[in-house]
Structure formats: C-alpha cells, structure tokens
Design goal:
- Strands 1-2-3-4-5-6-7 form a seven-stranded parallel β-sheet.
- The mean pLDDT is about 90.
- The protein is globular and about 45 Å long.
- Strand 2, helix 2 and strand 3 form a beta-alpha-beta unit.
- The chain has about 220 residues and is of the alpha/beta class.
- The protein has nine helices and seven strands.
- It binds zinc ion (ZN).
- The site of zinc ion has 4 residues, from loops.
Length: about 220
C-alpha cells in the first residue's frame, strides 16, 4: 500500500500539472492513495472551483486509484478565518505547514484552529522534535490527544526526514505515541517525484505500527 498525500496542481502558484496528470501518473506508478493538497494562499485561488474539479477527478479515477481532497494551509502569514468555516465539509484533510519555522503560526494557536475543523488535520514538513524543544512540552501527546497526524515529507527539502529515519530513539517514541502518520512527496513537478523514496517512507511508517492516514480507506 503506497500513499502520497502531498501534491500540488496548477491551483498552486508553484504547481506545474493538472490534477488529471498527477492522478494518471500516480495510477501508473502504483500509488494507491493520492492526495491533492494545493496552497490556499495562491492569488486568485477559488476554493469552490478547486473542490468541484477534484471531485470530478476523484470520480474519473475511482476504478484506478483513490483520490483524496486536501489543502495545504500556509501559516506564514496566518490563514483567513473564512477557511475554517468553508473547508471542513468539503475536504478529506488539510495540512498545516512548517509550524517549526520562526515565522510560522504559534503551536497552541494551531491547536485552536484544529478544533474548528471537522476534517482530518495534520502537520506538513514540520520537525515535531524541534517543536518540543521550543515549547518544552510533549508534542507527541498533544498530537495524539487532538487527533493531529504527522507527515513524513520525502521531497528532500527538509532535514527532519533524514534525522527521523536514522534516529531509532525518535522512531521508537513516535511508534509508542500511537499518533497517525502520513507520507507526502510534496510534488510540484512530476520529474521531482522520487518513487523509491516514497515507497521506503511508506514501508517505514507501516513498520512503526501506527495508524496511517487513509491507508485502509479510513
Ligand atoms: Zn506543499
């Protein structure tokens, strides 16, 4: 079972493909669950149109692979309030990005946001161990309690990925915490997609024994 829940289409200012192209590629590569997670802050981003098009693609590909409708919420600057009201019902999940950045949203403010949303909510490319140092609290316990999943991002842009795969103590803590995990390639251009790395990351999260987001149609 291979999931990839972090992908960008032309709806993102930095995405280079249509959702159809991404879905078609995912099916040919043997990706079982593909999540589209465009940036909500892109100029001219039309949330209604986004949902409409992704539902169409989900229907079109229903016999080949499972498409999930997500959104990547920028936290630098903070999102608009309209999002919380409009997005929960239409989304399968949303990713809040880079909470470990100095310019990112405060973690406790993020938890308040999380409580407003009825869809699944996760942290994208965020080093949760860095957050622990910053706030001096057990972040894993908060993620578990607030039902927030954690993304293993395979794009190569974030060092926490390498740190996590080579640090057995961190892997053990995550495993014991029981938090839900996801895997995302953060693809903006298809040639960047490293399929072998994506597959390894999926194997890693399965080996930890934690629930994996949407892995069994959840
Ligand atoms: Zn992204």
């Amino acid at each position: 079972m291979v999931i990839d829940l972090h992908n960008h289409t032309l709806f993102s200012y930095d995405g280079k493909h249509t959702a159809y192209e991404l879905a078609d590629n995912a099916c040919s590569c043997g990706i079982d669950v593909l999540g589209i997670s465009d940036h909500q802050f892109t100029d001219g981003f039309d949330f209604g149109e986004y949902i409409k098009q992704l539902r169409k693609i989900r229907q079109e590909f229903s016999n080949r692979c499972e498409i999930k409708i997500g959104l990547e919420v920028g936290t630098r600057p903070k999102p608009d309030d309209f999002l919380a009201k409009s997005m929960s019902k239409s989304l399968d999940y949303c990713l809040f990005e880079s909470l470990d950045s100095d310019k990112g949203m405060d973690f406790f403010e993020f938890v308040e946001w999380r409580r407003l949303l009825s869809c699944k909510v996760g942290l994208a490319h965020t080093d949760i161990f860095k957050l622990e140092e910053k706030y001096g609290i057990d972040i894993l316990a908060v993620l578990k309690k607030e039902e927030i999943f954690w993304e293993i991002n395979t794009s190569g842009n974030y060092t926490y990925y390498y740190d996590f795969i080579t640090n057995s103590q961190k892997r053990e803590r995550v495993s014991k915490s029981g938090i839900t995990l996801s895997v995302g390639s953060d693809t903006h251009r298809l040639y960047e997609l490293n399929l072998n790395k994506l597959i390894s990351a999926n194997e890693l999260v399965c080996s930890l024994g934690n629930p994996v987001l949407f892995s069994r149609g959840r």
